[in-house]
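Recap from last week: sequence in, structure out.
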Amino acid sequence: MSYFAFKYRLKPTPAQAVVLNNVVGCVRYSHNKVLADAKEDYQEYLEELESRLIWGEARTYKEAQAITSRKSVGRAALSQNLTRLKKEPEHQFLKEALSQALQQGINDLAVAYKRFFDHQAGHPQFRKKFRNDSFRLPQGFEFDENACRVKLPKIGWVKYINSRPLLGSPKSITIKHLCDGWYIIALCEVEIAVPVELSDSDDATGVDLGVVHFATLSNGCFVLDQEFEEVKLRLNKCADGIAKIQKSLARKKKEAKKQGVKKASNNYKNELERLRRAYKHQSDIRHDFLHKASHYLAKNHGPIIVVEDLKIKNMTKSARGTTSKHGKNVKQKAGLNRSILMLGWGTFLRMLEYKLERKGGRLVRVSPKYTSQTCVKCGCVDAHNRPTQSKFKCVKCGYEANADVNAAQNILNKYLNKGRACPVGL
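Predicted structure tokens:
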């Protein structure tokens, strides 16, 4: 069994859109109220820990934790806080909202707290309007694909654009509001054939990701190279437009501060809406290309694709340095960081992974060490082997090739030679 997500555009009537907005607002409000109470309890717990350390009741932080009780922030405790909240006279409006949506929001908060205490994420944050305006329903919905409509609890039948058929059985739906309208995402459980066990002798292709050529294959081909050039131009144009809008917003904010105006003007709100739409347009361009590139690779160059195990977060760190020790080539590194983040390498690898799995293939990561400095012919490792960004010339044997092609071949060789290769897990 596998889970697939299907996204469709909703077409609610004005009255239905008002109800959807109310549900989103109630989910956000209940999340923030329960989180505020949990943060207050946690702050009291931290103060008690500090008090025990100051007064000598405990010598270490762990000893203080052992003798100090902390209120639970698990799913059951947070659900009880939600029930208490709904019973308060000033919060009777929460009873009119979809109870499942409220409960799912609290479940997400419980998961966020678990990740926080497991040191996997920071402290849960308050939800803000226009940011992740969504709610989830695990049951009580019904799809009518022939009539292109979906039935929602307390709302009724809502039309949607049936851009592709649903597969399997829908297990939950998420209603999401973006700057250009409402969307529904259906999570479906689909039965897929068990893939045949792949052996090391099966066809494998090495792929090197870059900013000049998006993906270079070990056979010397460049993936959708012409389309990539057009996408880069469109993304850069969007980035210029976003920068222009941000400058306009900063100027309006500065003028309002000088005049002592605290409430945002209509012009400021309109500029914010323009900014949201510009970011959405940029995201759509990027995701469209990433889907096409990952589909092309999974369809034509499987069943095994080998990539570098890139640490993108580390690669895009600033080169600014510190006040005592300044960095080098700061502007050039900043430009490279923007290019890497704009292209969405991490998203591309996630797309490629699940598309390969659907076709019975797999994605393999290998260590990226010296793949761009190693000669594929003689194995010489030298930083001078790559005199320019695009040219590779071995200082030992004189072998010349495109630097990206040479790197892709080294990536493939690392897998074939068992050079620290590891399959990607879910």
